[in-house]
Amino acid sequence: MKKRLGFMLSIVLMFALVLSACGGGSKTNNGASGTNASASPEASAAPEESAAAGAKLKIGMVTDVGGVNDKSFNQSAWEGLQKVTKDTGSETKYLESKGDADMEPNLRAFVSEKYDMTWGVGFLFQDAMGKVAKDNPDSKFGIIDSAVDAPNVVSVNFAANEGSFLVGVVAGLTTKSNKIGFVGGMEIPSVTVFEAGFNAGVKAVNPDAKISRNYTGEFGKPDLGKAAAAVMYNDGVDVIFQVAGGTGNGVFNEATARKKAGQDVWVIGVDKDQSIEFGNEVTLTSMLKGVEAAIYQVSTDLINGKWEGGKSVVLGLKDGAVGLPENNPNISEDIMKKVEEYKQQIISGSLVVPTEVK
């Protein structure tokens, strides 16, 4: 946790300046999980607009198909809501989506249960949340990694290409084989933007490096990630950046087995500092994204009587919303200096990182 403290504090402070809002009231509990609950399109749960600041509310979260224990994106979001419960006493709960078809019914379930706010975690929620928000204009929603143009939705996106450029610099200067890999979940904009930044960072410092890519098509299948990593490592790749949710856990599993066998391979984690889960022995670094802090800040703003529906923000390096962990024991001081140089160029605007794969 110490590794993330400075990063999380900076993004929480930044959010306090970016978002503000006005909300309503309910009870206390820790979260529970479930799937496929549904409610009619007509159901709406309108929080009391005049509720006192600091009231105990009910805030729900629907995961994407990676599940709440993906050790990545969804888990970060749920940790943000758990902190909301700890700090405010408000009730928080999650529902897991086993497939795309579960997303809309799960959102409607929270509306029918009169939750004061409901989060959809991930790009794949865009259509479902658009429908549910339109059907329930008095309910409040938040979405991560997408944007819904509705007055009752707060949309939060991250300039993941910027942070990914920096880990690309690390990969390009660390590789010994000049073979680097990218393993993605689904080939959608919220994932390809990572690849675009990563590729640009690698090429900026090591134009001779060859970058392999593999999109598994899934966010919750570790076996697919393990198989994709095995193919790359067998081909001589020695650094893989995984952006695949629970599927990416399989990349770590494959790398760990090879490390134990004496092979010098690395994984770059995503969203969270994944060395906490998988260890520094195999984690070169991670591309952090402030999902936990975003969920926490918007939710507590609502609890404290502030709500600005219709707000859409994109947060990047200048906001402290993406980047590397504070401690990177596997990266040399010279490489970190180079990372900092590129970081300042991106923040100043002298370097514009691509958002699309070239």
What do you see in this structure?
The protein has 2 domains: 186 residues, Response regulator (Rossmann fold, 3-Layer(aba) Sandwich), CATH 3.40.50.2300; 133 residues, Rossmann fold. The relative contact order is 0.18. Strand 3, helix 4 and strand 4 form a beta-alpha-beta unit. Helix 3 packs parallel to helix 4. It has a 6-stranded parallel β-sheet, sandwiched between helices. The N terminus is likely disordered. The chain is an alpha/beta fold. It contains 11 helices and 12 strands. The radius of gyration is 20 Å and the shape is globular. The chain starts with a helix and ends in a 10-residue tail after the last helix. Its main location: membrane.
